[in-house]
Amino acid sequence: MSLEKPVIDDVGAEIFALAARIYPICRSITGNGVRQTLREIAAHIALDIHEVPTGTPVLDWTVPREWNIRDAWIRNARGEKIVDFSRSNLHVMSYSVPVQQQMSLAELKQHIYTLPDQPDLIPYRTSYYAENWAFCMSHRQFEALRDETYEVLIDSSLTEGHLTYGEYLHKGETSDEFLLSAHVCHPSLANDNCSGIALLTQLAKRLAGVRTRYSYRFLLAPGTIGAITWLARNEDKVGSIKHGLVVSMLGDRGGPTYKKSRRGNAEIDRAMVHALNQSGLSPAIEDFSPYGYDERQYCSPGFNLPVGLLQRSKFGAIPEYHTSADNLDFISPQALGESYRLITDAIGVIEGNGVFRNTVAKGEPQLGRRGLYGAIGGEKNAAAANMAMLWILNLSDGEHSLLDIAERAKLPFAVVKRTTELLAKHDLLKPVAGA
Amino acid sequence: MSLEKPVIDDVGAEIFALAARIYPICRSITGNGVRQTLREIAAHIALDIHEVPTGTPVLDWTVPREWNIRDAWIRNARGEKIVDFSRSNLHVMSYSVPVQQQMSLAELKQHIYTLPDQPDLIPYRTSYYAENWAFCMSHRQFEALRDETYEVLIDSSLTEGHLTYGEYLHKGETSDEFLLSAHVCHPSLANDNCSGIALLTQLAKRLAGVRTRYSYRFLLAPGTIGAITWLARNEDKVGSIKHGLVVSMLGDRGGPTYKKSRRGNAEIDRAMVHALNQSGLSPAIEDFSPYGYDERQYCSPGFNLPVGLLQRSKFGAIPEYHTSADNLDFISPQALGESYRLITDAIGVIEGNGVFRNTVAKGEPQLGRRGLYGAIGGEKNAAAANMAMLWILNLSDGEHSLLDIAERAKLPFAVVKRTTELLAKHDLLKPVAGA
Amino acid sequence: MSLEKPVIDDVGAEIFALAARIYPICRSITGNGVRQTLREIAAHIALDIHEVPTGTPVLDWTVPREWNIRDAWIRNARGEKIVDFSRSNLHVMSYSVPVQQQMSLAELKQHIYTLPDQPDLIPYRTSYYAENWAFCMSHRQFEALRDETYEVLIDSSLTEGHLTYGEYLHKGETSDEFLLSAHVCHPSLANDNCSGIALLTQLAKRLAGVRTRYSYRFLLAPGTIGAITWLARNEDKVGSIKHGLVVSMLGDRGGPTYKKSRRGNAEIDRAMVHALNQSGLSPAIEDFSPYGYDERQYCSPGFNLPVGLLQRSKFGAIPEYHTSADNLDFISPQALGESYRLITDAIGVIEGNGVFRNTVAKGEPQLGRRGLYGAIGGEKNAAAANMAMLWILNLSDGEHSLLDIAERAKLPFAVVKRTTELLAKHDLLKPVAGA
Questions:
Q1: Structure letter (DSSP) for residue A407
Q2: Nearest to C166 by CA among C294, C307, C52, C280
Q3: What average pLDDT does this structure show over B372-398?
Q4: What is the largest CA-CA distance in chain B?
Q5: Please, which pLDDT band fits residue A381 given cuts at 50, 70 and 90?
Q6: Does ipTM top 0.85?
Q7: Chain C contacts of B235, Cβ < 8 Å?
């Protein structure tokens, strides 16, 4: 398998362009914003779009009513729109019930969220399961509000409808699956998670022409309830998931940050850590914790799937998180390209991993006779170039995988893989079936 | 179980008062000093006092003759008592045989112990198993001794008699036992171990009104030979001891110091380490070593009981150890109260520990529907308060105990316990029988 | 077993003297240099010298043709010998084919090796398996070569013959073996490995009079092909090798450096690490890697023998490595004596190790009654001297070896061993058969 060609092309720029295209859409956990987003994605890959009716029981949850919004504003006493949904969809708390009403400043303040410590930013707020309505605005604007009568409008609907998610399967040589999952429920937040949606789309698109060992399942679904809905409808498929990544916030300059799966030492954990350590970036590796994105669901004890979380900056740990500062200026083609490369590197490890047996197990094979070894002995550093061969031959006892060897020998997996292929061509290594 | 009430009362002051009351008594490994001490304890708890005859074989040992002392002094040539047992019982080496004799300074010096490096302090010395006699004095006094004839008297007896120890059992819901053991063989040494005797007495007294899961066995016995005697007479009970602590030197401002049981990772070790790490003090955690107090006997390979040692300063490591400086000024109600709290915190962990299973194992349960979750999503720190719930639900797969979860989540055990009870009330957790 | 007497004698000086005696010989992987070296060794120990014919298949290899050299030089246009094999056998690349020819400077330069970064040193080069010829010289000399016609002579032969190696077996009480292996294929390099050949010879000589538990097999063979040849001819004996050391570069002032066996925690690894940590030197302990000396063959996956590598400086890591600076000035009797002591200390651990069971497992045995314990209790440091007894008694539960105990108690193995013998004499310990 090779995803190296896509690295040569300007994948970061294409991811950025797609993220920019879906950035303006007002997404929530249900509704037309999700549909519109998935239609954009479907222009790139053959996405299956699923609609699940309100009221459908899914694990411990129930698919909620569908929320849609057409317009929203606050008008002051002079009729001026001082807050306008059409300027930023963050201005309305997601799942706000409809309202059209005149009210005093005191009443209005009960329905306003701000960030006093970041007075220029609009916060992102939701209230999916408690009926409520609210506006979000900058704290500067909030402080300037005059004591007068306001008119507020939220032209939304909360009705029987559907939850929408998208799914794409790249079929590999086996039915064992690699799950790649991103949430599609956040409105105009560029990093969280237009970046993830766009990156997975470009990855799926590039995978289409590639023969892979594993099948790759891409899931673009609203956070929490979307993953729960997919799990509820696919309990029989869960056993096929051998590796998985939740992705989020892949476009900023921080991190990269990898949170291990609940298992802690799954192959995806080791592959991702290897890719990160080889990246030349300054990765942070974290143990699993039960707070985060949809790895919470995949790693719940009844599933316990080998699914980790890849981000650049860690969610919640940066000032831009869940604010209007998470805009297109906050993400860059370069960071998106790096993130893409990390994921394809980890996929490369998973695809290429395997266990081999040294056919000349007793003593070293005579590499020189086969033209595999530096011919002039005694050179101080002659062996440096041969270390990969020696490590692979020494550890290929049928019990160590190529990733084990790369870790032990502190060599890039790609070098181990390439050298293994060379040794196998000379019949010095044989793959161990079923390992 | 709750021992929190005793923490509110002034337990440190009560422990100090009892320690002060028993401090003047001249204890040894046998004799009336031990009896008098145990009678003082029996005024607080229903202590069983056992008398074991001299000559009784106990494991590899034999109960020694009983030693009692009425008076002792050294008189100079002018008949002045220059050393007087009635002023400090440390002046006479414990188990000194009787003597009344005139002798030169040179002869007398063969029978005097001092601490040249701590010239103002009287050392504490014993000779239980080699017949001998000696006086202990400050090195300053020793150096001032004039070359004249001295008269020495030790009015002691070493006769067939008994070894005496006290035992108290608080019965819990099960016959599984928690052993708490302190030595009662040291004369006027306040920290080592009037502090331990007094603390265990106050703990037993407060436990009396409390329903517990475990039965609590309190053992107040002379060091080494007392523990060996108890073990010899209770070999059939040893299997019931699931947890244990030897206590010593609980009243000074050092440490706290915990020495793990020989097993190294017994539940008591983990519970005590958890309590220490949560205490806000600066604990030292040490691996087991075979030198110390009666954990030496409990952790001998034929028993290998899960019994650790709790001290403040480490024995032998401070200048006051085994000298007249280990007096009532060296211990304080505050330090004793802190030590009491550490022990009851560890008991709280042991009593409250258990294994639960998440009844909604697949995906997260919908906490919001049950009123268990912050209703407004998107708040940067909303999840902080929910972390205990998420950790408990994620790790309650029937294999992790609450203490496992507290350690992994870096949360106080009490928070984990309280949250577990809340989740169990909502039927989200069920206890795993027998775990 | 005791090798302590040899430490008292001036073993370092005797090793140095033998190393100096074999230093001038021109060794290679075959030929008369090896034979002459082994004859020198045979003057000290009853060495078996084996001759294996060219063409013999050995594992994946074939015994090569035998190489011998009588003379070699380069003459300038005036007929002056500017390079002369008789002055340093490093001047000729090992296994150079015969040549006698006139040539221009440009042609000659195709056959010269130098060390530009170490311009005063002659490098050591070999070409065992590619037919070629070359001279080695200092870079200063190389740069001074004038553009004239040179005559070169290499009077060597590469013919059907034999590979020669030496073997010596010290028979112990059991047929379980301890392998000690050094290479004999390097020409005038004092540290690498005249030091190893000489040290093993002196060790074998001193062992001759000593009763040992293990049998000690000494193997002096050319590097790589020699070990492979021995392994091929002794596959049935390999199972008897319970411990082993490859030695190399034992005479310089660096290190000591120990590279663990592939198993990583074999008894030889633990014994050698213990000896190093007790040595007062500044040892470096390294994990196994598949590059180095003949541990590469012994630790190939089909054998996986518990064989480590002991050196002073690490090969390749010092400027003198594989140059004319590795001469007799580079090694010293003192360093050789220290290396000898490290090896005999590790042998002492392996010989003396065993598992015992405390016969008084319940409680501590009464050591005082048996005269084993300080009689005066209460002394602050009385117990220090008794710690070895207490550790041994506490851990002798049939599952901990004496080496386990020494490691855990942080005591020298010799102290643990001596104390074990004392306790066994008092019937407090019994050996566990078969452990």
A1: H
A2: C52
A3: 74
A4: 93
A5: very low
A6: yes
A7: 362
Measured between beta carbons, the chain C residues lying within 8 angstroms of A409 are 289
Closest listed residue to residue A122, CA positions, set A59, A188, A56: A188
Q: Is the peptide bond before B193 cis (omega within 30 degrees of 0)?
A: yes
CA distances for A28 relative to A183, A222, B338, C332, angstroms: 10, 7, 53, 79
Does B393 contact A at CB distance below 8 Å?
yes
Total-model pTM: 0.92
Best of C60, C135, C231, C291 to mutate (most A CBs within 10 Å, chain A): C60
Residue-level length of chain C: 435
Does the beta carbon of B386 lie under 8 angstroms from any beta carbon of chain C?
no
pLDDT in tens, C84-134: 999 999 999 999 999 999 999 999 999 999 999 999 999 999 999 889 999
Calculate how close chain C gets to A407, using CA atoms only, in Å: 13
Strands B162-170 and B215-221: antiparallel
- Token pair, residue B45, equals 């708890």
- Would you say B385 and B419 are in contact if contact means Cβ atoms under 8 Å apart? no
Cα separation, B139 vs B119, whole angstroms: 4
Instruction: State yes or no: pLDDT of B376 exceeds 90.
Output: no
CB C41 within 8 A of CB C216: no
Cβ(B145)–Cβ(B103) under 8 Å? no
Q: Please state, in angstroms and rounded to a whole number, the distance separating the CA atoms of residues C233 and C165.
A: 12
CB count in 10 Å sphere of residue A101: 12
* CB-CB contact of B123 with C378 (8 Å): yes
Residue A97 gets which letter from DSSP?
P
In angstroms, rounded to a whole number, what is the distance separating the alpha carbons of residues A129 and B414?
30
Q: Where are the beta strands (DSSP E) in B332-387?
A: 355-358
Q: Is the dihedral of CA C333, C337, C338, C339 positive or negative?
A: positive
Around Cβ B110, how many Cβ atoms within 10 Å?
A: 8
B278 within 8 A of C372, measured Cβ to Cβ: no
Residues 25-84 of B with CB under 8 A from A: none
Cα separations in angstroms, C219 against C50, C170, C247: 11, 12, 11
pLDDT-based confidence at C434, cuts 50/70/90? confident
- Summarised one tens digit per residue, pLDDT across range B187-241 is 999 999 999 999 999 999 999 989 999 999 999 999 999 999 999 999 999 999 9
CA-angle at B211, arms to B205 and B212, nearest 5°: 90
State both tokens at A275. 């890719």
- Please report, as a single letter, which amino acid is at residue A392: I
Written as six digits, the tokens of C155 are 């009077």
User: From CA B261, how far away is CA B288, in angstroms rounded?
Assistant: 6
In the sheet with C81-84, reading across from the earlier edge strand, the strands are: C81-84, C66-75, C149-159, C99-104
Q: Which residue has the tokens 């008098």?
A: B36
| β partners of residue C377 | B126
Measured CA to CA in angstroms, residue B122 lies from B110, B135, B181, B313, C249 at distances of: 16, 10, 27, 20, 59
φ/ψ of residue B386, rounded to 5: -95, -5
From residue C291, alpha-carbon distances to A372, C134, C189 in Å are 15, 26, 20
Q: Per-residue b/e over C36-58, b at no fewer than 16 CB within 10 Å?
A: ebbebbeebbebeebebebeeeb
Calpha distance A2→A20 (Å, rounded): 28
Tokens describing residue B190:
């306040």
Distance CA(A388)–CA(A397), nearest Å, equals 15
Residues of A in contact with B386 (CB under 8 A): 291
Contact of C235 with C75, CB cutoff 8 Å: no
C397 at the B interface (CB within 8 A)? yes
Main-chain phi, psi angles of C113, to 5 degrees: -110, 140
**Structure tokens, C239:** 């199972």
Confidence of residue B377 (pLDDT cuts 50, 70, 90): low
